[in-house]
Amino acid sequence: MSIQSFIPKQRTLMGPGPSDVSPQVLSALSRPTIGHLDPLFVGMMDEVKSLLQYAFQTTNPFTIALSAPGSAGMEACFVNLVTPDDTVVVCVNGVFGVRMTENVKRLGAKLVVVEGEWGRAVDPQALEKVLQENPSANFVSFVHAETSTGALSDAKTLCEIARKHDCLTIVDAVTSLGGVELRVDDWGIDAIYSGSQKCLSCVPGISPISFSERATEIVKNRTHPVPSWFLDQSLVMAYWSGEGKRAYHHTAPVNSLYALHESLLMLKNEGLENSWARHKAQHQALAKGLASLGLEFIVPEEERLPQLNAVHIPEGVDDVKVRSYLLNEYNLEIGAGLGAFAGKAWRIGLMGYAARSENVALCVSALKDALQK
Ligand SMILES: *Cc1c(COP(=O)(O)O)cnc(C)c1O
Q1: Running along the chain, 373 residues long, what does each successive block of 10 average in pLDDT?
Q2: In sequence order, what are the residues at sequence separation of 6 or more whose Cβ sits closer than 8 angstroms to the Cβ of residue 50?
Q3: Could you identify the atom of ligand 1 that is nearest to the CA of residue 196?
Q4: Nearest CA residue ID for atom 12, ligand 1
Q5: N or C, which end of the chain is more exposed by having fewer CB within 10 Å?
Q6: Quick check: 145 and 180 in contact, CB under 8 A?
Q7: How far is the CA of 228 from the centre of ligand 1 (A)?
């Protein structure tokens, strides 16, 4: 067998990520690779920082794009901020909340879990109660947009409660950034991480993160080194900032950062509010179409994520058969259920460039065909 160049099919990506990447972003990706310390590249990194500050709605100087996927962004927040002396409250309402608890356990900190229902938003009163019972708690973490279930939590209120109890907040915005309202400074979020391949519609493998002044102070004043060398942000800070001189830390994924720059520029040109509104409008159109097929949402209407639509698989319908049919006949990818919803739900993404009318129409008609078959 001779191995030849790999040329993938043109798919429509409507799963939980990666989402469709626009031709504009793919074309940015193929521009000439230059050195990662080339003054031209350093100038572009500065623009990525400022575009990310816009996307996050923050003035945090420490706002960068980590050279690794969203999972590394999660780990970077925990590993830099949390020590064995800390008590971390984690709100769990899906797979990614569970992953946060794994991070806390591995760091040897005290873990307190706010057990939530899968498919529902985090209950602010449950957080309030846990914080009253645990006065030593100094961190609160939660997932803004739980991609495993399609539930959107009220990040603003959760951060208010955390702050009232003198806790710093660590927020997962992997799926929320660019798709729903998110205001890092107004809501007082201390550490936040996202991913390039969800509503930013960029290629996978980059994690935008931002630390508030309070979080940055913790990193600077640590007495023990961060247990991960690669994710130690005190070292990464010298690479992403430092007027004029940048210290080599690792080789940035140069072309992927061109792509991120382009996707963030597209977001800026569209306008954040417009992007949030577009996701909502496409979600409403999709919800109508899904209802016409008799498909039911897992999450109650007021807690639904526009960019991730989780529906119950109807009785007697073969999950794998339907998804394979969509992929083979329509080049359409939708997501399988994850964790507690494995085999029981489909997750239909409307993220970034994928949140368009033609995708909604394709998904509804293809699903209709598949269900009839
Ligand atoms: C996708 C996702 C992650 C993980 O991101 P990767 O880039 O796959 O590592 C974390 N949290 C949430 C909410 C996600 O949707």
Answers
A1: 95 97 98 95 96 98 97 98 98 97 98 98 98 98 97 98 98 98 98 98 98 97 95 90 76 97 98 98 98 97 98 96 98 94 96 98 98 93
A2: none
A3: 7
A4: 174
A5: N
A6: yes
A7: 20
